[in-house]
Structure formats: structure tokens, C-alpha cells
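W.,

You were right to be curious about this one. When I first looked at the sequence I had no strong expectations either way, so I just let the prediction run and decided to look at it fresh. Below is the sequence, 169 residues in total, followed by the output.
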Amino acid sequence: MKNTWTFRANHAVTRFMLRLTLMALFFAFAASVSAGERIYPDISQAKADIATALKEAAATKRRVIVDFGGDWCADCKILDINLRRPENAQLVQKYYVVVHVNVGDRGITDNDDVAERYGIPLKKGVPALAVLDSDGRLIYSQKQGEFESMRSMDPHAVTAFLRKWARTA
């Protein structure tokens, strides 16, 4: 009986350590992929970048995803990795123009007015996405911090999001 309990305890510890190691490797990978590369441009570019994205979307009959976040945000980096996964990259290329809005270089401190314009409550966390039609009309905005815990979410949630809001007609 004692050996069975010891085996189960050791097995549980081994599984826990394996999960912990895999999570650490994933976060190390995520950090290394994005470490030298900025995802979110200078804070001052938000409005101009959205205008440029809307022009491109109108010309190509796609929608715009406005991604509010910051380079300091691990969940924002993980969302970016998920958007680049092959199945999602194809959906993005076909249906969307993505524009990144920097909410601050060391926390959520900037571009509140832009977030408010698109119905994004930054106090709920980032990343947060808004979907615009090519004419600038708001189609959808994440109001409850839906991707704020991206690191613990199923990556397929991003695929489902992209499919749901794609312009198919």
C-alpha cells in the first residue's frame, strides 16, 4: 500500500514538473521570438496607422483588426504568435488588415481616447481587439478582457475569433 501511494505521489510530482518545464519553455520561446522585434509601434502612430489600415481594407475588401497592447505584455506577444500560426495567418491575410495600437511602453498609460472610440475598456486588460469594417464602422470590440489571459487560453480561440468576424460576402 505504501509503495502505491509513493508511486502515485512521485508520478504526480513528475507530471507537475513536466508541465512546469513545458510552460517555461513556451514562455522562453515566446520571449525569444519577440524579444528583438517590436510588435507595437510608437504610441503617437495609432491614429495614422488606423487610417492607413482602413484605406488598405477598403481597397482590398477586408476588415481591420485593431490590436491594443504593448511590447511589455506577455499575453500580447502570445496573441501575436497565435495570429502568425499558419491556419490563422491565412485567415488574416484573406480577411483582415491588422493594426497594432501601443497602449504604453511600461503599462497601460496611452491611447485611451483611441480605445474608447472603439469600445475597448483598457482597464479590463490587454490584448484587446476591435474589428472594424473597411469604412471604419465598429463591428465588434472585446469589452470583457477576452484575450487578456492569452497565455492560459486554447490557441484555437484565436482561430474561432478570426472565423467569426471574417467578412465572407
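Here's what jumped out at me. Helices lie at 2-35, 46-60, 74-84, 86-95, 112-117, 156-165. And, maybe more interesting for your project: Residues 21 and 43 are 35 Å apart (CA to CA).

Coffee later to discuss?

I.
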